[in-house]
Amino acid sequence: MVSLMDLIPKKHKFEVGKVHSNPYHSVFKPIEEQDDSGLVGDDHEQVELFGFHSKHYDVCPSAVKAINTLKKARMTEGSKDILIQLAKIQDDFFEIEKKAIKEEKISEEDLKGMIKRLNEIHHRVGMLSARFKSDLRKHFVYTTGHIFRVLPHYEN
Hints:
single chain, mainly alpha, 4 helices, 2 strands, 3% strand, elongated
């Protein structure tokens, strides 16, 4: 009788009961190697990383989750700088959104500012994706929804 393990080619054989990790996935450090000394907590409403403290992330829990996930990745100083820029741009983006929702109107200048920041966010996500050799866009799909949220408050 042939066992299931006999059907797997030799180059792909695994030991039964042994846990295997993906050797190609090197973006995130194993928990025991993570250095959280430059990080401050995992707040569910705001982002804190490398000395930057956000003020407007409370409008988007998905953004908080995305940044809190990325800040645990292996990073060079250049990657840290890009991540901090990304966090700051998003904070400005959310500030404009909060103002528009509160006032129930958004000016053309503010709407253009949000769209400009949206492009900058996506550009930096692309830069980080290239550095990490991993598509990070799936963590930032929420961004365009914020534009659609303020559009009803725009009058030309």
